[in-house]
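Project standup — Tuesday

K.O.: blocked on the structure for the chain from last sprint. Re-posting the sequence here as requested.
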Amino acid sequence: MNNFQYYAPTKVVFGKDTEKELGALIKEQGCRKVLVHYGGNSAQKSGLLDRVCRSLEQENMEYVTLGGVVPNPRLSKVREGIALCKENQVDFVLAVGGGSVIDSAKAIGYGVANEGDVWDFYAKVRVPQACLPIGVVLTIAAAGSEMSDSSVITNEAGWLKRGCNNNLCRVKFAVMNPELTYTLPAYQTESGCTDVLMHTMERYFNQADNMEMTDGISEALMRTVIKNAKILLTDPENYEARAEVMWAGSLSHNGLTGCGTDGGDWACHQMEHELGGMFDVAHGAGLAAVWASWARYVCQERMDRFEKFAVNVLGVEPAETAEKTAARGIEAMEAFYRSIQMPTSLTELGIDPTEEQMQEMARKCSWDGGRTVGVVKKLDQGDVLEIYKAAR
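H.V.: unblocked you, prediction finished:
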């Protein structure tokens, strides 16, 4: 196994009615004025936004609000938030929502605390030196951004979807009440479950001498999400299933399932970022649409991992060869995606990219041919194009 550092400083407040503790949690941070950042109308219609603001008022805290975050959060909204924070001398950002809202809040935190253009951090031109403190009221179990060092933003100039990873943006606390996810549409719930799974799968498929403990945690997490994703398809208000998936989402992306490895592959995420940037698809669904094509393209490079995944995670009976077991595992994963109404191709995702569009996505994914993606097999621009074609 590799040497590693594990850092997870976020305070988690988990369970029913935990959003009532919000005001006290923010007061602990010693801040003076809060930006309450949220997405669309659901936070307002459900009454959650009112409860959040009431909790702040009970602690005599000043706040301003900014809604309108969309899936695949936009740089323009981030810049709007930065200006609002500077104008009002905001010193704490509270994200009320899922991964898109949290990522937008992190970007705002970077933009207020550093000089210059915040996009520089996502374009890898500069590294942030500070970030406003951030808290979260989680309403979607998916991205794991409530405990990760990651933030992903889409720049409308060129529709570039890029990430910034830095410990400075790790949130101070995450309020996690599974009941807040009850009203999510089925597609959004299952897309979120897929995202949770993929955060561990990306780390599981690697080129390291793996750590038995990390593998065991990863495999248990993946089995748990698969089990409960099926339950939630027909029983969306099953508290236990919602709780299992919500906690798995945090553990899947806070670094735990990568301890002792090389960090994992992440090629599927990089390819999906270009799908999201060009077609604005749901992130988890986009990952499901490309995963099997990626797996078939690279599995010869780490057949033992694909065989182990098939047996230990998906319950496939070992075949006479590792190749057959691995192939059946990939087929079983596709069957699972279909069972929760997730796509296994770009056509099922609802898009039909042209040859020129696939070439453009491959070019952007490879940064104009300047990098490879993945570690199971290092994929250049041509490889990425072939996977897009196979996924079509």
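K.O.: great, moving the ticket to review. The chain has two domains: 11-180, 186-391. The two ends are 37 Å apart (CA to CA).
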